[in-house]
Amino acid sequence: xxxxxxxxxxxxxxxxxxPAGGGPTVLRMVLGGRLRRLREAAEISREEAGDAIRGSxxxxxxxxxxxxxxxxxxxxxxxxxYRIADPIEREEYLELARQANASGWWHxxxxxxxxxxxxxxxxxxxxxxxxxxxxxAVPELLQTPEYARVLLxxxxxxxxxxxxxxxxxxxxxxxxxxxRLDPPQLWVIVEEAALRRPIGGSAVWRAQIEQLLRAVARxxxxxxxxxxxxxxxxxxxxxxxxxxFAEADLPDIVYLQQLTSALYLDKQADLDAYRAVANQLSVxxxxxxxxxxxxxxxxxxxxxxxxxxxxxxx
Length: 314
Description:
Layout: H1 3-9, H2 23-41, H3 46-52, H4 57-64, H5 72-81, H6 87-100, H7 115-126, E1 129-134, H8 145-155, H9 161-174, E2 185-191, H10 192-196, H11 202-215, E3 221-226, H12 232-235, E4 240-244, E5 253-257, E6 262-265, H13 268-284, H14 291-300
Parallel strand pairs: 1-2, 2-3
Antiparallel strand pairs: 1-4, 4-5, 5-6
Helix pairs in contact: 2-6, 2-7, 3-4, 5-6, 8-9, 11-14
């Protein structure tokens, strides 16, 4: 395929897309994907492209994957190399790069946020569908501040309270995506055991259940509860999130958070495997229309242990 055919078959560059929310992360990925196809259409290797910008093939790989921002000089040199001469088209690429280099609202927390999590925040803020399985606790996008504070205090017990409060504030601000004019669809499957786990004691737990009841009333939020006897952990090896985007250039991404890092999977085989597990979990979980009744019944059956704070959840 020639470069001109690549440009004709691609979606518009969406130069007018605002860099607010998750824009920069996604725009880097969109721009990187477009440039990769231009390079391949011109039959130019990563090594040759790296030489053109005084870099290496690994730098080209990072740029094409959207892992790093573009310097204007490097982008100009690549457009020259790929024989993109039309001034209007060149300016579209350059403007897209400027927007992609902007900072997300979470940049103010860059002094403590790990880079791998910075990437996830950008993807989450830009997603049109967030589909998740959570076996241990209420999903983060649906947590109350008090519930989140208990979990974060347990997970980061060596940090001062001021640092914990910054983490709580960040988690709460992430939830603003659900209140946007164009909110993503949130579809979560949560283990019954996670809902019964007395995080923070009776008052915190009850407030969290009530928060879930409010959340499921939203048209863009779907919560399914997986009964204990189904054995969700046997179907999925831990929590995972599948993110989908409006941009035609972007594949779905599976996010797996680990203790000190994260995995981002976008290969078709991985996507197919996690979609299949998500579908299987959804079939085994109670249908969404039963969630309100399950939550209300759970609240009524509040066990005595809820008078004591919960221990670590792992």
